[in-house]
TrEMBL record:
The protein's name: DNA replication complex GINS family protein
Matches recorded under Gene3D superfamilies: 3.40.5.50
CDD domains per UniProt: GINS_A_archaea
Species this protein is from: Methanofollis fontis
Length: 238
Protein backbone atom coordinates (compact mmCIF):
# COMPACT_ATOMS: atom_id res chain seq x y z
CA UNK A 1 0.00 0.00 0.00
CA UNK A 2 1.51 3.29 -1.12
CA UNK A 3 1.55 6.32 1.18
CA UNK A 4 -0.21 8.41 -1.45
CA UNK A 5 -3.06 5.89 -1.57
CA UNK A 6 -3.47 6.15 2.19
CA UNK A 7 -3.62 9.93 2.01
CA UNK A 8 -6.37 9.72 -0.60
CA UNK A 9 -8.39 7.53 1.78
CA UNK A 10 -7.90 10.11 4.56
CA UNK A 11 -9.17 12.84 2.25
CA UNK A 12 -12.25 10.78 1.31
CA UNK A 13 -13.06 10.04 4.96
CA UNK A 14 -12.79 13.70 5.91
CA UNK A 15 -14.87 14.96 3.01
CA UNK A 16 -17.63 12.37 3.30
CA UNK A 17 -20.06 12.21 6.19
CA UNK A 18 -20.32 8.46 5.72
CA UNK A 19 -17.91 5.56 5.76
CA UNK A 20 -16.01 5.43 2.49
CA UNK A 21 -15.20 2.33 0.51
CA UNK A 22 -11.74 1.04 1.41
CA UNK A 23 -9.83 -1.98 0.10
CA UNK A 24 -10.51 -5.10 2.19
CA UNK A 25 -6.77 -5.65 2.63
CA UNK A 26 -5.98 -2.01 3.47
CA UNK A 27 -4.64 -2.56 6.98
CA UNK A 28 -3.00 -5.91 6.34
CA UNK A 29 -1.11 -4.59 3.31
CA UNK A 30 -0.12 -1.46 5.24
CA UNK A 31 1.26 -3.62 8.05
CA UNK A 32 3.29 -5.61 5.58
CA UNK A 33 4.67 -2.38 4.14
CA UNK A 34 5.68 -1.25 7.63
CA UNK A 35 7.41 -4.57 8.30
CA UNK A 36 9.36 -4.25 5.06
CA UNK A 37 10.48 -0.71 5.86
CA UNK A 38 11.46 -1.76 9.37
CA UNK A 39 13.58 -4.56 7.93
CA UNK A 40 15.32 -2.11 5.60
CA UNK A 41 16.06 0.24 8.49
CA UNK A 42 17.60 -2.58 10.51
CA UNK A 43 19.77 -3.55 7.52
CA UNK A 44 21.37 -0.11 7.30
CA UNK A 45 24.75 0.12 8.99
CA UNK A 46 24.22 3.78 9.92
CA UNK A 47 20.56 4.40 10.86
CA UNK A 48 21.33 8.12 11.16
CA UNK A 49 22.40 8.37 7.53
CA UNK A 50 20.31 10.17 4.92
CA UNK A 51 18.93 6.86 3.66
CA UNK A 52 17.99 5.82 7.19
CA UNK A 53 16.31 9.16 7.86
CA UNK A 54 14.19 8.83 4.71
CA UNK A 55 13.07 5.32 5.64
CA UNK A 56 12.22 6.32 9.20
CA UNK A 57 10.23 9.30 7.96
CA UNK A 58 8.29 7.07 5.59
CA UNK A 59 7.69 4.50 8.34
CA UNK A 60 6.24 7.08 10.75
CA UNK A 61 4.20 8.77 8.02
CA UNK A 62 2.47 5.50 7.13
CA UNK A 63 1.73 4.74 10.79
CA UNK A 64 0.32 8.22 11.43
CA UNK A 65 -1.81 8.09 8.29
CA UNK A 66 -3.21 4.69 9.27
CA UNK A 67 -4.02 6.04 12.75
CA UNK A 68 -5.85 8.98 11.17
CA UNK A 69 -7.94 6.65 9.00
CA UNK A 70 -8.88 4.54 12.03
CA UNK A 71 -9.79 7.64 14.07
CA UNK A 72 -12.05 9.08 11.37
CA UNK A 73 -13.82 5.79 10.78
CA UNK A 74 -14.31 5.02 14.48
CA UNK A 75 -16.12 8.33 14.98
CA UNK A 76 -18.55 7.43 12.20
CA UNK A 77 -19.06 3.92 13.57
CA UNK A 78 -19.90 5.31 17.03
CA UNK A 79 -22.40 7.66 15.41
CA UNK A 80 -24.02 4.71 13.66
CA UNK A 81 -24.15 2.77 16.93
CA UNK A 82 -25.92 5.66 18.65
CA UNK A 83 -28.45 5.87 15.81
CA UNK A 84 -29.02 2.13 16.04
CA UNK A 85 -29.76 2.32 19.78
CA UNK A 86 -32.04 5.34 19.46
CA UNK A 87 -33.98 3.75 16.62
CA UNK A 88 -32.94 6.39 14.10
CA UNK A 89 -32.36 6.00 10.39
CA UNK A 90 -29.31 3.95 9.40
CA UNK A 91 -28.02 3.63 5.87
CA UNK A 92 -27.65 -0.11 5.36
CA UNK A 93 -25.21 0.49 2.54
CA UNK A 94 -22.94 2.35 4.94
CA UNK A 95 -22.89 -0.65 7.26
CA UNK A 96 -21.54 -2.71 4.37
CA UNK A 97 -18.47 -0.44 4.22
CA UNK A 98 -17.21 -1.85 7.54
CA UNK A 99 -14.56 -4.53 7.59
CA UNK A 100 -14.82 -7.52 9.92
CA UNK A 101 -13.07 -5.82 12.87
CA UNK A 102 -15.13 -2.64 12.53
CA UNK A 103 -18.39 -4.55 12.29
CA UNK A 104 -17.50 -6.53 15.42
CA UNK A 105 -16.82 -3.30 17.29
CA UNK A 106 -20.12 -1.82 16.04
CA UNK A 107 -22.11 -4.76 17.41
CA UNK A 108 -20.20 -4.73 20.70
CA UNK A 109 -20.79 -1.00 21.21
CA UNK A 110 -24.51 -1.35 20.48
CA UNK A 111 -24.76 -4.24 22.93
CA UNK A 112 -22.85 -2.45 25.70
CA UNK A 113 -24.82 0.78 25.31
CA UNK A 114 -28.11 -1.12 25.44
CA UNK A 115 -27.08 -3.09 28.52
CA UNK A 116 -25.79 0.01 30.30
CA UNK A 117 -28.92 2.03 29.61
CA UNK A 118 -31.13 -0.83 30.74
CA UNK A 119 -29.19 -1.15 33.99
CA UNK A 120 -29.35 2.58 34.64
CA UNK A 121 -33.09 2.76 33.95
CA UNK A 122 -33.80 -0.24 36.17
CA UNK A 123 -31.68 1.30 38.89
CA UNK A 124 -33.69 4.51 38.77
CA UNK A 125 -36.96 2.60 38.93
CA UNK A 126 -35.76 0.59 41.93
CA UNK A 127 -34.70 3.73 43.76
CA UNK A 128 -38.09 5.33 43.19
CA UNK A 129 -39.84 2.21 44.48
CA UNK A 130 -38.18 2.58 47.89
CA UNK A 131 -40.48 4.56 50.22
CA UNK A 132 -39.00 7.76 51.65
CA UNK A 133 -37.97 7.75 55.33
CA UNK A 134 -40.40 9.03 57.94
CA UNK A 135 -40.33 12.78 58.39
CA UNK A 136 -40.33 12.46 62.20
CA UNK A 137 -38.68 9.17 63.23
CA UNK A 138 -39.48 7.81 66.66
CA UNK A 139 -36.41 7.79 68.94
CA UNK A 140 -35.11 4.40 70.00
CA UNK A 141 -34.28 3.75 73.65
CA UNK A 142 -32.03 0.79 74.38
CA UNK A 143 -32.56 0.40 78.13
CA UNK A 144 -35.68 2.21 79.28
CA UNK A 145 -38.87 2.95 77.34
CA UNK A 146 -39.27 6.54 76.29
CA UNK A 147 -42.02 8.64 74.87
CA UNK A 148 -42.14 9.34 71.10
CA UNK A 149 -40.79 12.68 70.01
CA UNK A 150 -43.45 15.35 69.84
CA UNK A 151 -43.75 17.57 66.79
CA UNK A 152 -44.84 20.62 68.76
CA UNK A 153 -43.63 22.12 72.01
CA UNK A 154 -40.11 22.88 70.82
CA UNK A 155 -40.29 26.49 72.02
CA UNK A 156 -41.43 25.39 75.48
CA UNK A 157 -38.46 23.05 75.76
CA UNK A 158 -36.03 25.82 74.81
CA UNK A 159 -37.59 28.16 77.36
CA UNK A 160 -37.28 25.47 80.03
CA UNK A 161 -33.61 24.95 79.22
CA UNK A 162 -32.96 28.67 79.42
CA UNK A 163 -34.75 28.93 82.76
CA UNK A 164 -32.67 26.05 84.08
CA UNK A 165 -29.45 27.58 82.80
CA UNK A 166 -30.10 30.90 84.51
CA UNK A 167 -31.57 29.48 87.69
CA UNK A 168 -28.05 28.66 88.90
CA UNK A 169 -25.78 31.45 90.02
CA UNK A 170 -22.21 31.30 88.69
CA UNK A 171 -19.45 32.92 90.76
CA UNK A 172 -17.71 35.87 89.13
CA UNK A 173 -14.32 34.33 89.86
CA UNK A 174 -15.09 31.34 87.67
CA UNK A 175 -16.74 32.82 84.58
CA UNK A 176 -16.74 36.60 84.65
CA UNK A 177 -18.38 36.87 81.23
CA UNK A 178 -21.49 35.07 82.39
CA UNK A 179 -22.05 36.87 85.67
CA UNK A 180 -25.28 38.88 85.74
CA UNK A 181 -24.93 42.65 85.52
CA UNK A 182 -25.67 44.96 88.39
CA UNK A 183 -29.21 45.09 89.63
CA UNK A 184 -31.44 47.64 88.04
CA UNK A 185 -29.75 47.54 84.62
CA UNK A 186 -31.67 46.46 81.50
CA UNK A 187 -30.39 43.11 80.26
CA UNK A 188 -31.02 40.76 77.35
CA UNK A 189 -30.46 37.06 76.95
CA UNK A 190 -28.62 36.22 73.74
CA UNK A 191 -27.30 33.12 72.00
CA UNK A 192 -23.85 33.83 70.54
CA UNK A 193 -23.39 32.69 66.92
CA UNK A 194 -19.63 33.18 66.61
CA UNK A 195 -16.58 33.68 68.80
CA UNK A 196 -15.80 37.24 69.89
CA UNK A 197 -12.65 38.87 71.23
CA UNK A 198 -12.86 39.96 74.86
CA UNK A 199 -14.73 43.24 75.33
CA UNK A 200 -16.01 45.35 78.22
CA UNK A 201 -19.75 45.76 78.49
CA UNK A 202 -21.63 48.86 79.59
CA UNK A 203 -21.94 47.24 83.01
CA UNK A 204 -18.14 47.35 83.43
CA UNK A 205 -17.70 43.60 83.10
CA UNK A 206 -15.39 41.85 80.62
CA UNK A 207 -17.01 39.31 78.30
CA UNK A 208 -15.09 36.62 76.40
CA UNK A 209 -17.71 34.77 74.38
CA UNK A 210 -17.58 31.67 72.21
CA UNK A 211 -20.02 30.36 69.62
CA UNK A 212 -22.94 28.63 71.32
CA UNK A 213 -22.68 30.61 74.59
CA UNK A 214 -26.00 31.60 76.15
CA UNK A 215 -25.40 34.74 78.22
CA UNK A 216 -27.01 37.82 79.70
CA UNK A 217 -25.67 41.13 78.40
CA UNK A 218 -26.55 44.77 78.90
CA UNK A 219 -29.41 45.55 76.54
CA UNK A 220 -27.38 48.04 74.49
CA UNK A 221 -24.49 45.58 73.97
CA UNK A 222 -26.90 42.80 73.07
CA UNK A 223 -28.64 45.05 70.56
CA UNK A 224 -25.40 45.78 68.72
CA UNK A 225 -24.49 42.08 68.49
CA UNK A 226 -27.96 41.15 67.26
CA UNK A 227 -27.96 43.88 64.61
CA UNK A 228 -24.70 42.46 63.23
CA UNK A 229 -26.09 38.89 63.30
CA UNK A 230 -23.39 37.91 65.78
CA UNK A 231 -25.93 36.92 68.41
CA UNK A 232 -29.59 35.94 68.59
CA UNK A 233 -31.88 37.64 71.08
CA UNK A 234 -33.78 35.13 73.21
CA UNK A 235 -37.09 36.44 74.46
CA UNK A 236 -38.71 34.50 77.27
CA UNK A 237 -42.46 34.47 77.54
CA UNK A 238 -43.73 34.00 81.07
Amino acid sequence: MDLDDLRIIVWNERESGKLSDIPPDLFSSARRALEEIEGEIQGIADPFSEEGAVLQDRYHSIRETLATIVKLRLKKILRLAEAQIEGGYIDREELKQMNAQEHGMFEAVCREIGDCRQALVDGVLLERAVPPPAAHPVPVCEEEPCEPAEEDGGEDEIAALIDEAFSKSIPDSEIPSRAPPAEGGAISIVLVNEALPAFMGLDGRTYALEAGDLVTLPKENAGVLCERNIALNIRLIK
